[in-house]
Amino acid sequence: MKVVIAGGGGTGCFAALLLARAGHEVLVLERDELTVHADVEAAAAAAFRPTAPQIVQPHLIMARARELLWDQLPDVYKGLLRAGAVAAPLSTQMPPSLPDKTPRPGDERLAVMATRRSTLDWVLLRAVTAQPEITLRTNVKVTGLLTAPSRQPGPPHVTGVRTDDGDVLADVVVDATGRRSAIDGWLTAAGARATAFQQAECGIAYYSRHYRLRPGVTPPGEPLLRMVAALDEFAVGLWPGDNDAMQLAVFPLAADHRFRAVRDPDVFTRVVRTVPAYRAWLDALDPITGVFAMGGLHNTLRRLVAGGVPVATGLHAIGDCVCTTNPTLGRGLAFALTGAAGLASTLAAFPADPAAQALAMDDLVTAHIEPHYLEQVIVDGARLSQTRHLVFGGPAPQQPPQALDRVGYGELRVAMPYDPVTFRAFWRIMGMQALPAQIYTDPQVVASTRRLLATPGAVPAQAQPSRAELAAALSVAVTR
Question: Rounded to an integer, what distance in angstroms lies between the CA atom of residue 173 and that of residue 28?
Fold first, then answer.
């Protein structure tokens, strides 16, 4: 088949490689200029694109994404390692407070890979440009769809795309343009129904900065540990990367305008220093970028099948176009690889049946993506209510009655640094190695979490700045 992929970011590259290696002729259309830089540091320096602000934000290849990458694109996996990415076993994510660090069966499936997103994209772009069956055209914007009457009574059938550089025919069109996709406008302009779209707020903004471990300095802790602290008024995190690079991020409520000051690197540093767990890291790291901001974050879910009927045939969507969730949990790469691998399998299973293709892709969303979206909506809703109460004095959130046969994400997050069963349950959630409901209702997980949280003094209070200390740190830009 001739496949046109709109979007040449990570999702589009995953799909292009898998489809080309399955025997399809692939054309990737990307609106931005994409350059294969000489090395990962040159790629990192040029990584920021306004159309894809997530590229410069913290990333970690979580368990499910790492497994899919190894299974589906082992050459890309190995290329990442050669580029300086690090495969990190679960033991690297064990905090010092965990009382039992003994390895257990299944730990190998929870390993992660530390890399900057720009390094992953550099490796992917090199692979795409080396694949003979893939043509990459940059500085081309997809503006609409070409359609023909359906092969059967029903929705329009997509036969290609319109671009600002002419029309392109295709047997299959894939939207990999991300969270800002114009797919609904394309569909309605072509006389089709819009997609079924759901949205709920994340409610946070991201401010992050890249660092490198200072040569000759002993790290104050495990250098591959992802460390996130959810405080009363904001959250702060440290992510490992490739080639001794690391990222620090501050993520407050998007509506908390006090934190706009952290765009100033000095203010950013002072805010991070208010959190004791991160002070020693700042003393071991050298900044290598300014502060990058990212807002407009939502949990979203898009379906191209509504009421059991595709909105169009010959058109598929994958990656952030289909689903975005709170970036703190790092699911985006897993969603992208799940969609790309599922699309390759679907085209192989139903090469001549566009309607069956659409239904199969929708089944994939139901089984592997929607449960994580629905769970994140609940988690973010509870967290936002609590933080708004503490920051703005809003209504105190109503605490639901404690269920006897299940726990929730918030309970796992609090308990996981102190219990080995809960710790692994948390990383199975993070790594998408089981559906949330399966983990939250696991009897051993429920018993371990409940026992720990009911033990006086088992979970010490988290050290964090006072309101006055935070205000002083945030006011530095004004007083200089």
Answer: 10
